[in-house]
Amino acid sequence: MSACRFAVFLCLLVGSVQSGIAQQNFGVVQGRLAEGIKEVSEMGRLMPRKVGTSLALTVPVSVNGSKTTWWIVDTGAPICLIDPSFSTKLGLHADNKVGRFPVTIVNNFQLGTFQCGGIACVVRSIGELKTVELRNEGRSIDKGGVIGINLLAKYGGLINCRTQQIFFSPAGNLGMSRQKYEAMGFTYVPMNVTSKNRLEVTGTLDGKEFSFFLDTGAYSTLVDNSIRNEVNLPFFTTNTKIIGPFHDFGKDARYTYGTATDFKLGNYDASGARLGATTLNLHENPGSSHRFAGFIGMDFLFSRSAIIDVGGRGLYLKPSTPSDDLNRSVFRAD
């Protein structure tokens, strides 16, 4: 094993960056969890309870030499986003003729100490994500945008959801060995980057095959109500309205949830996982290889110590235990 790969595995195992070991061959960015909290009511409960309105993995970013801002890592975003106020402050030129929103190209994009170039960013408001605070600190942070799949795929991003670290390679693939992950107790789940820049995994619910998209920008794992009903998932109903900063779920979208008794992703047995459900309100073909069921969010990924290897096209999961959950009472859609 090369010094580069050994150093990456060492970081994965101990959850810390080992300085001075092959740093010239790959980049390591230490992120932080950030969240928002509010009180909501739930059917069957007399008193409202505190729940997470958002939970996100954030990383430090400097654009064209700017001071550091924090960006949300969102594998549900096909392309990076930069907030208009930040883009204007930096004087970035944007092309208004390429789509629904303007697009700018950032040639000096620094993630931690890792230098990126030629990164396309949609100029669009990051909305409610501006309100998140660093977890367990309660202090505000400057948010600049969203890290999307275009950057993660270009530099072979490898996301350790448990330690909030991201590894990058100038070659676009860290070349990590599936066998080494499995020796550490992970189960390999094949992953595909779709033509629409989504991270797709295939799984089954109640023995029926579906496609799911990995979405680190969403707190709660969500399936469509039609899938919930088809696989006969018992569920609880809440009064919580589903609102996403980048997707319109519809005015009547409400959050329900239940426990899946027959759920697999590849060969990984996810039975017992908590699944949220709502009306996903999709107006176009999502571009999945199988019938699309929903999104795998950070609640599922964190509690299973997920490693998302974008360059190597693999998702790696460990068994979940109750103590591993971020917070079983917290839910969010994105």
3D architecture notes:
With 334 residues, this protein is mainly β. The protein folds into 2 domains: 30-168, Cathepsin D, subunit A, domain 1; 179-324, Cathepsin D, subunit A, domain 1 (Beta Barrel), CATH 2.40.70.10. It contains 6 helices and 26 strands. The protein has helices at residues 3-14, 84-90, 149-154, 178-183, 225-230, 298-303, and strands at 27-30, 32-40, 49-63, 69-73, 80-82, 103-106, 109-111, 114-116, 119-123, 133-134, 143-147, 158-160, 165-168, 187-190, 192-193, 199-205, 208-214, 222-224, 236-241, 254-259, 263-265, 268-269, 274-278, 292-296, 307-309, 314-317. The strands form 3 sheets. Strands 2, 3, 4, 5, 6, 7, 8, 9, 10 and 11 form a 10-stranded mixed beta sheet that branches. Strand 7 (109-111) and strand 8 form a beta hairpin.
Please outline the helices and strands:
Elements: H1 3-14, E1 27-30, E2 32-40, E3 49-63, E4 69-73, E5 80-82, H2 84-90, E6 103-106, E7 109-111, E8 114-116, E9 119-123, E10 133-134, E11 143-147, H3 149-154, E12 158-160, E13 165-168, H4 178-183, E14 187-190, E15 192-193, E16 199-205, E17 208-214, E18 222-224, H5 225-230, E19 236-241, E20 254-259, E21 263-265, E22 268-269, E23 274-278, E24 292-296, H6 298-303, E25 307-309, E26 314-317
TL;DR of this structure?
This protein is mainly beta and 334 residues long. It is built from 6 helices and 26 strands.
